[in-house]
């Protein structure tokens, strides 16, 4: 099925560093979502983007909905140990979410 | 109540067993979903219920049987599963099937 191109696949950073990840698609989406998943748990919705060009923040997280509606990025500023996990982007399609493959974030203290 | 709950948290079953997974939400959402997730992969959609009616079945084998008894509850009945069906099973809900989805904590299923 359709998938989003999410990069990078994994990141190894030092605590306190900023993080950036992005997703691209060959199709247009009207809503972009960013989720975080901890091991053995369900994905938690971090940010939802509804409008092309929209820039939205949630604490240290900032996400943007690309102007072409085919891409989105997520930034995390001043990373802390609890930011460790897998981050998924998702495009809202007709009754379905299309997921990226995930970005695994590891933080060295 | 702003969460999706799932029971049990863990389930181990043999290939001849019959078991059920349960999902519940009290957010007034009218769409509910079942996903299967393998390690290091994104969730994979199995079923979508919209207004208590099955609207999408992603060609899931008949050994998985969903049921939506009411707008708050979603079950997944399991029968004659295979070891490759071992995975994290996630339930999600959304206001309608065109809105952002909220996931439950999942059921870790192991088939022996």
What is this structure's SSE topology?
The complex is a heterodimer of chains A (109) and B (112).
Chain A: E1 5-7, E2 10-14, E3 19-24, E4 32-37, E5 44-49, E6 55-58, E7 61-65, E8 71-76, E9 85-92, E10 97-99, E11 103-108
Parallel strand pairs in A: 2-11
Antiparallel strand pairs in A: 1-3, 3-8, 4-5, 4-9, 6-7, 7-8, 9-10, 9-11
Chain B: E1 4-7, E2 10-13, E3 18-25, E4 31-37, E5 44-50, E6 53-57, E7 64-70, E8 73-79, E9 87-94, E10 102-103, E11 107-111
Parallel strand pairs in B: 2-11
Antiparallel strand pairs in B: 1-3, 3-8, 4-5, 4-9, 5-6, 7-8, 9-10, 9-11
Report on the structure:
The complex is a heterodimer of chains A (109) and B (112). Chain A has 109 residues and is mainly beta. In chain A, the strands form 2 sheets. In chain A, strands 2, 4, 5, 9, 10 and 11 form a 6-stranded mixed sheet that branches. The model of chain A has no long low-confidence stretch (mean pLDDT 95). Chain B is mainly β and 112 residues long. Chain B is built from no helices and 11 strands. The interface between A and B is medium-sized, with 21 and 26 residues.
């Amino acid at each position: 099925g359709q998938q989003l191109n999410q990069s990078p696949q994994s990141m190894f950073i030092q605590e306190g560093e900023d993080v950036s990840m992005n997703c691209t698609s060959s199709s247009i989406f009207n809503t972009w979502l960013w989720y975080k998943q901890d091991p053995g748990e369900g994905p938690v919705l971090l940010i939802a983007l509804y409008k092309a060009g929209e820039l939205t923040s949630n604490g240290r997280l900032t996400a943007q909905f690309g102007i072409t509606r085919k891409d989105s990025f997520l930034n995390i500023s001043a990373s802390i140990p609890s930011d460790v996990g897998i981050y998924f982007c998702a495009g809202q399609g007709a009754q379905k979410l299309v997921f990226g493959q995930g970005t695994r974030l590891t933080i060295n203290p | 109540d702003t969460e999706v709950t799932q029971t049990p948290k863990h389930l181990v079953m043999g290939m001849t067993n019959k078991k059920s997974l349960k999902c519940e939400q009290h957010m007034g959402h009218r769409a509910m979903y079942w996903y299967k997730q393998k390690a290091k992969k994104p969730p994979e959609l199995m079923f979508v219920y919209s207004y208590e009616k099955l609207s999408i079945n992603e060609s899931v084998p008949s050994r998985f049987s969903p049921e939506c008894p009411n707008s708050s509850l979603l079950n997944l009945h399991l029968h004659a599963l295979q070891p490759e069906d071992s995975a994290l099973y996630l339930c999600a809900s959304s206001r309608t099937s065109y809105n952002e989805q909220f996931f439950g904590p999942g059921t870790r299923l192991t088939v022996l």
